[in-house]
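Field reference: "sequence" (input) and "structure" (output). Example, Transcriptional regulator, TetR family:
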Amino acid sequence: MPTAQDRPLRRDAQLNRDRIVSAAGEVFARRGLAGTFHNVADEAGVGLGTVYRRFPTKEQLVEAVYRQHLAGLVATAEAALRAPTGWDGLVDVLTTAARLHASDQGLRDVALARGHRPEAFREFGDRMEPLLRDLVERARTEGSLRPDVTAEDLPVVMAMISELALHADPVRPGLHTRYLALVLDGLRAPATTPLGDPLTRTELDAVAENWLPALEPREDAG
């Protein structure tokens, strides 16, 4: 049976919904997932209750804002597998992700959150992770990527660069690209300094949970 969320909206209700989604995109881009429904309501110029009528949970609002963005990241990774070399593909993915994460903290939070990513975006992880593994394996096999780098290292690298961009790009737009170039040089073969034991999947989930904000509990709409 269709739910209230599935039924077509009246024109005025659709305009309200679009305004809320647009406002949420602005709030999450600036504040990340730490942005609240109060922030969204203020940005949209509507009451808090109006936001909750359209989006009863924050997860639903985050999904409305970012589903297409995440699909674009998957498409970038798929295209990277068709690049002339594995290294070219890896650089394309890291450069594109760094640029997008630098301009949108919310996208960074959703894309890198892993273990506490909203349920609606688990599909993104299921599609993205095998693509990253294939990219890493291709680059290692051709000898361009140092052999001790794993796919689990890539989200950590992206979290480091996007965190830097958060603080550095307001000082000089695009400053994060300087340090992305340094990181890319560090990923290249041959390796000169051992990295130690690789990160496990469980450890990566724990790092993401400690680093990135989870969705917050429902706020009081009263």
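The chain has a mean pLDDT of 85.
The chain has two domains: 10-56, 66-211.
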